[in-house]
Amino acid sequence: MTTGRSRPRRPPGATGPGRREPLAARRSSVMFTVRGGLSGVPSLPRLPSFPTPRLASPAGQHAPAGHQLGSLGSSDSLAGHPAAPGVRLARAVVAGGASTSLAIAAHAAAGGAPPSAALVAAAGALLIRLAYGLAGRHRGLPTVLAALAGSQFGLHIAFVLSGHRAANPEHHHVVAPAELLAYGGEHYGAGAGFMILAHLAAVVVTGALLHRAEELLWAAAALRATLRHLTARVFGPLADAVSRLRRLLASVIVGLPPAMSAGVTAVAATPPVPPRDIPVGRAARRRGPPAPRHALTPA
């Protein structure tokens, strides 16, 4: 026979000191007790909601104004950089088009037969592709002249071969490029030496113009990067101070505590709740077996 204090039977689902609550109920009860919202505690008057100034978190999407000024060099500066894909393609088109045009002009000035449109289009596309590969970084004048000399030599051979075949359709033998460069005939209208000099003049003129344009373009890119760096160093701290002052004024106007550090969001202050109205300890200890005062002892 056992003795102990008897307890009235509770309907299923009822909770109390001797019965464990479900996990979801315990979580909700602890959450509501921390916020002071239990059914036994009178609810506090709800404060009016104001727009709170939200600051950027350390790993958030926004950064302070000074850091934004300093980080413009990551993606915004690449848009106008000479090595950017769009600017690089434009440079390649200008270089390839200028080289092809001057080669055609030099060939025609030396008395050569005009090349076909298909040959001109193919030569221009090939030169644009080669120029795009060379435009990845800053090139010096010797590199530019060497590339243009090779392109003019190839265009000269192609134009001479196409003109020879067009002028002599009855000839079926293959003419070697060395033979075309060695002598000039009646079909070419001028000597090979004069044609080579015309192509060399085209190389020098095109190389000088392209190198000058490249120097100006890369100098402008360097000046832009320097100005951006100086702007970030000079106006970065000033922008941070203005941003902090704006957040302080906004917090004072709405009556909230100022949040001066990044990563902190200002929240409305709530009146403190007396400890006797917050049964946090009781709710937190409601785990495990029943308390010893409720256990049954043998007679």
Describe this entry's structure for a reader.
- The chain has 299 residues and is mostly helical.
- The chain has a domain at 82-225.
- 55% of the residues lie in helices and 1% in strands.
- The protein contains 8 helices and 2 strands.
- Helix 5 packs across helix 7.
- It is elongated.
- Residues 28-45, 50-76, 166-175 and 177-190 have low confidence and may be disordered.
Number of strands: 2
Provide the residue-averaged pLDDT.
65
In helices, the fraction of residues equals 40-55%
The number of helical elements comes to 8
Which sequence of strands runs across the widest sheet?
1-2
The main β sheet shows up as: 2 strands, antiparallel
Distance between the termini: 6 Å
SSE arrangement, N to C:
EHHHHHHHHE
Q: Return residue spans where pLDDT drops below 50 for at least 5 consecutive residues.
A: 28-45, 50-76, 166-175, 177-190
Structural class, from secondary structure content?
A: mainly alpha
The 3D shape can be described as elongated
Provide the gyration radius in Å. Answer: 42 Å
Proportion of beta-strand residues: under 5%
